Every structure is written in structure tokens, then in C-alpha cells.
């Protein structure tokens, strides 16, 4: 193979591009146990794994071999098939120092130097290549690379940034502002001096949380559409349920009966049950999202601290407001209920 002319700092890939015939000699090296596999490839049809043409190196009984296959989805049957682009020189691989190195010469699809590249690693089971992990770095291993200039754009860094933004928007919107707004409505309205300020604070938190949550939800849908064949079903379904319930809450504001209306009690029951359902589902889904993203431990710890703080404040306010309400009821009973008003928690 020709002496490598380019390399990447973010990926152990070296290559030489031959402009005369539009081919590239590549050498891809990645660490792996002897019972594992590594792969590298090009996706001519998109930016994800599905549709990628890949070279996979593994070994059986000490003999290293290279399998070529096209990933029709993210959980394929990895049979040895011809790639959709030309491979002028049969690929080869070696295993040394706890790492595989794949050597291949490829005719760049479409005769263009800018390509969507992918890479992966996983286990071998029963002598066959098995499914790699579908979380953490394994779902970030895509990058658009220019084989002529050596520059890269988009890919894993951009996608990881959007995944993190999706998580932050949802955590702040659904996971912090919505519960905070519910606490304001439940506890501050007990204090006569806080009326009607508590209502406007409640609405501000709920609308802000809804806007941020919907933005994060929409970004999640976009990320899902870019990951064909990879679906976090439970996380997605809970997210859809949260959006639907929260949207119902928004529309319910326009149907809120007057306080003296006989149907107000039913509206209150609906409003409270749907609101608390959103809060519980949001907390569950945020933790599921953290398990998917697998960020540094500090992020999950920070969210746990925030939840614990909100819960602690809620417990203290629950005791204080109930004491105020009971004392107020006792006072009203003493005066025959002629003066003062009661507050229902």
C-alpha cells in the first residue's frame, strides 16, 4: 500500500488519495480484543450507519480475515457481499499490539472526495460478528471527511452536540421549569400577599418549560429521523406522550371554567392529574435519556441533586401551607365562616 499522505486527529485513519483515478488507499487501526472485531466504511447514501459499505476485520483461531458487507439496517446479518463501489485491491488486515489494522483501496463513490465515513467495534460470538453496543460512542462514530483536503465537517461532533442540546432542553423544560411552576401554583397561592403574583409566575414557568420542552422534543424527532434503523422505542414513546399531555394542558387553559362554575371541580381534577403525569413521565424519560447519552457522571448527579432539592423544598412547603390552611379553617369556623376565604391544596 502507498505511504499514507493524510491522517485524522480524531480517528486512527491514514490514507493517500490518488486524483488520477479517484481512489484512496486507507489504513484504519483500532484497539480490540482478540475476540472482537473492528470496522470502517463509507456510506454513499446518507450520514448514518444504515446503507454503509464497510470492511470488518476479525479473527478465528488466530487467522485474521476481512469481511465486506453493506449495512441495510443497524442489526444486519453480516454476510460477505460485494460493495456498491469498486475495490481495486482486495482488502487485508492484521492484528498486533491489541489492535486491528485494515488496509484497503477504494474507488470513492461518485468520484467525489467528500464522503460520509463510519467506524465501529464489537464482539465476536460463535465465530460470527455480533451486534455492537447501541449507546455512547458507538452511536457517534460517523464523520464527513474530505479525502483531498483532510478536513471534516458535521458527523459525530455535530450530532453529539445536538444530542446534548436535546437533553439539556428537555431537562430544563420538562424536568425543572414544569415542576417548579406546579410548586408555585400549589404553595404560593396559599399566601394572600402572593395573589395574583403566584398565578403569573406559574404561567411563566409553564409556558417557558413547554416552549423549551417542545424545542427539545422536535430536535429529538430530527435526530431520530437521521438514525434510520436505530430507535430508542421506550424513550421515544414516553417523549411523545409527554408532548401530547403537555399540549392538552395548554389548550385546557382556554377552556378553564370560572371558579363558581359547577364544572370547575372536574377541570381542576383533570388539570392536576395531567400536570403531575407530565412531571413524573418527564423525570423517568430524562433518566432514560441520560442512560442513552452516557455523559460524564456529573450530569446525572446534577439532575439528581436538582430533583432532590425540589422535592425537599416541596416537603417543607407542604408542611407550612397545610399548617396555614388548617389554622385559617379553624379561624373561619370560629367566626362562622363569615370572614376570610379558604384555600384548597
Automatic annotation (TrEMBL):
Q: Which organism does this record belong to?
A: Triticum turgidum subsp. durum (Durum wheat)
Q: Which domain of life is it from?
A: Eukaryota
Question: Membrane-spanning residues where?
Answer: 165-185, 197-218, 238-255, 267-287, 302-325
Residues in domain Cytochrome b561? 128-326
* Residues the record lists as binding heme b: 166, 202, 235, 271
Function of the protein: May act as a catecholamine-responsive trans-membrane electron transporter.
Protein name as it appears in the record: Cytochrome b561 and DOMON domain-containing protein
Please tell me one Gene Ontology term that the record gives under cellular component: membrane
Q: Which residues form the DOMON domain?
A: 9-122
InterPro entries from the UniProt entry: AIR12_DOMON (IPR045265), Cyt_b561/ferric_Rdtase_TM (IPR006593), DOMON_domain (IPR005018), UCP037471 (IPR017214)
Q: Indicate how the chain sits in the lipid bilayer.
A: Multi-pass membrane protein
